Amino acid sequence: MHLRICLAAALALLATLGTATAWISRAAQGDELRALDGEWLFVEDRTEGRPVEQQQPSMARKFALRVEADAVVLVRSDGEVRMALDGSTTQVERKGSSSVSRYRGEWKDGAFQYEIEIVRASDNTRTGLIRTEMRVTADGMLARVIVDSMDSTALYRHPKDIPLPASAKAAIGDLAWLGGAWVGTKGSSSIEERWSPPLGGAMLGVSRTVKNGSMVAFEYLRVVEREGGLVYVAQPGGKSPTEFVLTELNPTRAVFENPRHDFPQRILYELAAEGGLSASIGYSRGGRPQRFEFKREGG
Fold first, then answer.
1. Topology annotation, domain 36-161
2. pTM for this structure?
3. Mean per-residue pLDDT for 14-23?
């Protein structure tokens, strides 16, 4: 009798421990899953063996996730995709597209994993498969994406967790060499930047891109003195301003950076020996910057 009572008590204890362990496991999983919530910004390419000039995001430069009780929602510029954690399929049809995307997600091995199967709407034939794994680490979130034979991994962080660069000491007069009208071409487009001379702690600029006789883009620009340094303020299309802090300056070169911006994160101006101006925009780390070459108007 005593043995049976002890055995029953032991079994009850094991059942209780099992329930507690399962609850702790689910709670830990919930904490890890909730860590995915929020906006994520590309920091650097972590793909093994990839040359610096080819480095790029594995996903979009910026995206957001919303974690719900039973799903993870991918928030994109063209809408939201809700992926249930039970492995069921979410079908997404884009207006005007001949393809259908089928999303399936699950929490597995400490990461949120999902795949996108792309099929032709007409005959249900698969035309592509994208597999993604999102894993939160102490350094940020690692997003691994596999498409066919291409395997890419990149580090993302919440913008507030990305450290801002130290500002270089400078006054607006140090940038006087940028003043004037600069013109150049990029492919079939003509591009111009016009900068006022430094005055009152600021330089004002405007950029215009013309293609086939029509303006296709414009930008309001300014560089202002702030707290012993310089800040570059850009408003593409007249939209809300984005600021970049001066991090490097010499008599012919200026570098402005904002690693919390999606793109560009780095803006560089440099005078050429023959009097031309080179401008480039790119990521803070890696990648191949977009480069623009200018000459002084009338020069």
1. Lipocalin (2.40.128)
2. 0.87
3. 46
Q: Which residues contact 223 (CB under 8 A, 6 or more apart)?
A: 172, 175, 178, 202, 203, 205, 230, 231, 232, 233
Nearest to 203 by CA among 227, 178, 228: 178
Backbone angles phi, psi at 4, to 5 degrees: -65, -35
- The structure tokens 């790029």 sit at 56
d(CA 228, CA 170): 6
Domain boundaries, given as residue ranges, for the chain: 36-161, 172-296
The dotted CATH code for 172-296 is 2.40.128.20
Segment of 12-21, 27-36, 167-176 carrying the highest mean pLDDT: 167-176
Q: Are 55 and 282 in contact (CB under 8 A)?
A: no
Q: Is 70 exceeded by the pLDDT of residue 294?
A: yes
Upper half-sphere CA count for residue 260 (Cβ side, 13 Å): 13
Q: Tokens standing for 54?
A: 């080819």
